[in-house]
Amino acid sequence: MQIIFQDPYASLNPRMRVGDIVGEGLEIHKLAKGKKKRDRVMELLKQVGLREDHYDRYPHEFSGGQRQRIGIARALAVSPRFIVADEPVSSLDVSIQAQIINLLQELQQKMQLTYFFISHDLRVVEHISHRVAIMYLGKIVEIAPSETIYRDAKHPYTRALLSAVPMPDPDHKKERIILQGDVPSPVNPPTGCSFHPRCPYREEICDKVEPRLEFTTDGHGVSCHVFGPGKRV
């Protein structure tokens, strides 16, 4: 397992050359050193869209998008099967975001990678994810295949999130769901369903009993007394 960090500026050691940053894992895990390490790093740089002459440069010589490519190359160095991508495009310009997302998808297909992709940008999530989990106060409230979440969301919190996603067509209007109240403290969450203080559909049971994450036969899981499997549509 490896990780791609959110901040491409803070996650790279400014005193290390790119070749050493990307190749550090190879030496730590005793996978390659010397010429073999250099050749492997050169290969990784090309895979993420960088050049061989970038090997001896320092992070401050690169743009944010290029730095994130360096971070991706570092994650790939030890040939992981599972990568945690912690908001890897949130600090980048929109045009660069698309390039990095496309790169991640290409690498996923080529190397058969599994991503655990963390993001607050639901459009990015829709573009890259096969399966989506929605969390509230540290707990999953809904999980389903991506197309199911965006077509047929059940949980009131998921519906509110999706209603806030801007539409590309300004003439296309949709009803915005405005949640009332503030987000409770995760240190001292409410009793019962943690979402009930802000939920417009709350019932008496919601205040007292924490709902279980229940699944339908097609793998759609919902943690809700009101909109869970077999309940209200």
Structural account:
The protein is α/β, with parallel strands linked by helices. The chain folds into two domains: 2-128, P-loop containing nucleotide triphosphate hydrolases (Rossmann fold, 3-Layer(aba) Sandwich), CATH 3.40.50; 152-222, no CATH class. It has eight helices and seven strands. The two termini are 39 Å apart.
For this entry, give a set of tags.
8 helices; Rossmann fold; three-stranded parallel sheet; 36% helix
Short description:
This protein has helices spanning 18-28, 34-47, 64-76, 94-111, 122-128, 146-152, 156-163, 204-208, and strands at 2-4, 82-86, 114-118, 131-136, 139-145, 214-215, 221-222. It is of the alpha/beta class and 233 residues long. The chain folds into 2 domains: 2-128, P-loop containing nucleotide triphosphate hydrolases (Rossmann fold, 3-Layer(aba) Sandwich), CATH 3.40.50; 152-222, no CATH class.
Count up the helices.
8
The counted number of beta strands is: 7
Query: Which term fits the overall shape?
Result: elongated
Counted up, domains total 2
Strand content: 5-15%
Secondary structure topology:
Elements lengths: L1 E3 L13 H11 L5 H14 L16 H13 L5 E5 L7 H18 L2 E5 L3 H7 L2 E6 L2 E7 H7 L3 H8 L40 H5 L5 E2 L5 E2 L11
Parallel strand pairs: 1-2, 2-3
Antiparallel strand pairs: 4-5, 5-7, 6-7
Helix pairs in contact: 1-2, 1-3, 2-3, 3-4
